[in-house]
């Protein structure tokens, strides 16, 4: 995983009270995970966040050049009891008009081609290896998918929990 200077810099920005809302609910983050094909990493990130942080965070995913959800991504998520088999690969254009509090690019290509988003969306880049590029035996390939899935969870869930804490403390009477 690598962090960009923009992420380090933006992570220090204070959260303004009442600036993050979804459907009129305070203290909720609306997050978009963006990658090239919306096939593996962004799909797994969406599933993990919507499972682990259901309620205070609503996650979406999209791709610059969408393809189809990778069956191995579906399989490794099922191992955790998270069903993403109903997900479909979406273009970032499919989400035109949506406003996000946070856009996280999970691959270098998406970071380079990240479109502009309306509103005050903060854009972070956290690079994860593409498990679809793994080679070897089926067991080795699946191990790579599991490793990326687990890395996504280990990095993204604490990051978003911290953002929620910042939001809640910013909204608390001082």
Write up what this structure looks like.
The protein is an alpha/beta fold and 174 residues long. It has a single domain (2-164), classed as Rossmann fold (3-Layer(aba) Sandwich), CATH 3.40.50. Helices cover 38% and strands 17% of the residues. The protein has helices at residues 5-10, 41-52, 71-78, 108-113, 138-171, and strands at 2-3, 21-22, 25-26, 29-35, 57-63, 102-105, 122-127. A hairpin with a 2-residue loop joins strand 2 (21-22) and strand 3. The protein is globular, with a radius of gyration of 16 Å. The model is unreliable at 1-25 (pLDDT under 50).
Based on the model shown, name its key terms.
Rossmann fold, alpha/beta, two-stranded antiparallel sheet, disordered N terminus, globular, 5 helices, 5-stranded mixed β-sheet, 174 residues
Output the CATH topology.
Answer: Rossmann fold
Distance between the termini: 36 Å
Which H/E pattern describes the elements?
EHEEEHEHEHEH
Detail the poorly predicted runs: 1-25
Strand order of the largest sheet: 1-7-6-4-5
- Helix fraction? 25-40%
How would you describe the shape? globular
Kindly report the average pLDDT value: 83
The amount of beta strand, in percent, is 15-25%
Q: Concise description?
A:
With 174 residues, the chain is an alpha/beta fold.
What's the arrangement of secondary structure elements?
Elements: E1 2-3, H1 5-10, E2 21-22, E3 25-26, E4 29-35, H2 41-52, E5 57-63, H3 71-78, E6 102-105, H4 108-113, E7 122-127, H5 138-171
Parallel strand pairs: 4-5, 4-6, 6-7
Antiparallel strand pairs: 1-7, 2-3
Helix pairs in contact: 2-5, 3-5
